[in-house]
Amino acid sequence: MAMTRGGPVRVVASVGAAVAAGRFTSSTVSSVSLGGVYTVGERPQIRSAPRCLGCKAHAVECRLCKGNSTSDWVPSYDPAVARLYALPQRHSSRAQQRLNYAAKRQPWLIRGMTTESAVEAVEAGEIPVLKGTGEGDLSQQVTRKYLIGKTQEELEGIALSFGEQKYRGKQMHQLIYKNKIRTVKELAQIPKQLRDAMESAGWNIGRSPIHHVATSKDGTVKILLRLDDSRLVEAVGIPVKDKEGNAKLTVCVSSQVGCALKCAFCATGKGGFARNLKSHEIVDQVLTIEDIFRQRVTNIVFMGMGEPLMNLEAVLNAHRTINKELLIGQRMMTISTVGVPNTIRRLAAHKLQSTLAISLHAPNQDLRSQIVPSAKGYPLDALLEDCKYYFETTGRRLSFEYTLLAGVNDQREHAEELATLLHQWDLGRHVNIIPYNPIADSEFERPTKARVLAFVETLSKRRVTTSVRVTRGLDANAACGQLRNEFQKTPLQAPMELSVPA
Ligand code: SF4
Asked: Residue 10's Cα: distance from chain center in Å?
């Protein structure tokens, strides 16, 4: 046992216990392993000898310094060093098991987290346990259920099902959607008995911790949310002032973790596909941006990571929740798609008042199928035929997105051909021009300003209106998927067979 000025030196056994006891002064945890917390920058202060949280009988000794350490010394993270600090498995608490698992198998789960959020994640059971990891009873968990997405009537039904009064549902509705609480524990107006019962039954609010925030000089904020399975997903908050000077806040939401369609220029496509987002994970992006800006969101665009129509059901549920519970008008929302067979007609049946934006990126099938590989299975003519059906069914004109790639699709003749195509189909005559945001390892380049202006001019001469998207947040990895790729480079594996909706 090591002796120092303050007495025997021990290694802290639990992050939660250590932080709760105020023993750490550091703010950032780079990795957590059995029995050790390793910090970057500041050093933790270890002042007392904690007992093992598992058996409570054994004190935990530092097996690395063997009596030569000073009281505030803890090594930087190194797996070999971490092993020396490891507690025997039989002494591990449930929380330690989770942290150990995460440190070994999913280090990104912990890396970069603040101490508070690491502790919060453990205590809230947000460190996932995947099947087949040999973690025994930890995989026997109550199925998680989420309150985000529930209507007031449904929340009242939940309250009644626990033997409480109906008005508790109304209180929950207010706390979830207006006060934006993050955990069931924060349902402060609700009796503790009900909160405990709901937690035991697996109810969660459905909020995900923020993994990272990047703020651009122009005020754009890009966030990464860490989902239950430790995947990261992006959302972007874009503050603007309208012509009257009113503050507007647009959120670009993701609908999938990654994307399987692999458009040639897209950072998300390059990162691979993991899974569809659940509807509460989509709504959470809006709530989190409102939290960060402390401002009401005015506009939603489904243009973040993923193809919304590949996850149509969750997108429609999220759309309903955003509209009915968060009270953001349908006309304030835009759903963007490169086109997925059989889905535009299905979407038309819902007769949404939101705008459907078609990402064309090219004026003809040949060029389009080079830029958007999925277009090979869903030719331009078939896509525009479905768009025509959408217009006839909903009465809403479509808008078109066109990413300008230098030397690829940005010539005057491309603009001419695009104008001809839009007139021929008469679906809408507005094109949103997006000068390409360069991404790492990309073969494409951003067009010059002169080229963009020439393209716009050609379209307007042909009576096609345009808006050129001002690039926001370039210093915050503006292109969708860029920030996620920076933090989660490992190619994502699809846990299930990917199928196009029938
Ligand atoms: S542009 Fe959209 S559809 Fe294409 S790969 Fe990227 S996220 Fe997917």
From this structure: 39
Q: State the Cα–Cα distance between residues 427 and 388, nearest whole angstrom.
A: 6
The atom number, within ligand 1, closest to the CA of 336 reads 2
Looking at residue 12, its pLDDT comes to: 34
The ligand 1 site (C-beta within 6 Å) comprises 259, 261-263, 266, 268-269, 305-307, 338
- Residue 60: inside a domain, yes or no? yes
Residue 498: inside a domain, yes or no? no
Residue 259 is a catalytic residue: no
Q: What is the block-wise mean pLDDT of the chain (502 residues), using blocks of 10 residues?
A: 33 37 34 33 36 38 36 32 35 56 58 55 56 40 85 96 95 96 93 93 94 88 91 92 87 94 88 91 97 94 94 97 97 96 95 95 96 93 95 94 95 96 90 88 90 96 90 57 55 36 38
By the 8 A CB rule, do 28 and 109 touch? Answer: no
Distances (CA, A) of 342 to 317, 383, 399, 500, 501: 19, 10, 19, 9, 7
102 and 59 assigned to the same domain: yes
Q: Domain ends where: 73, 105, 134?
A: 134
Task: Examine residue 502 and state whether it is found in any structural domain, yes or no.
Answer: no
Measured from the CA of 305, which atom of ligand 1 is nearest?
7
Residue 78 belongs to domain spanning? 2-134
Same domain, residue pair 297 and 441: yes
CA distance 171 to 446: 50
Nearest CA to ligand 1 atom 4: 263
- Yes or no: say if 44 and 25 are a contact pair by the CB < 8 Å rule: yes
Nearest 5°: CA angle at 236, between 232 and 240?
175
Residue 211's closest CA among 269, 288, 274?
Answer: 288
pLDDT for the residue numbered 427: 86
Q: How far is the CA of 97 from the centre of ligand 1 (A)?
A: 37
Domain count, the chain: 3
Q: What is the pTM of this model?
A: 0.70
CATH number of the domain to which 483 belongs? 3.20.20.70
CATH number of the CATH domain containing 191: 1.10.150.530
In ligand 1, the atom with minimum distance to the C-alpha of 306 is 7
List the catalytic residue out of 126, 156, 164, 234. 234
Give the model's pLDDT for residue 441. Answer: 76
Residue 501 counted as domain residue: no
Active site residue 234: yes
Å from CA of 225 to ligand 1 middle = 19
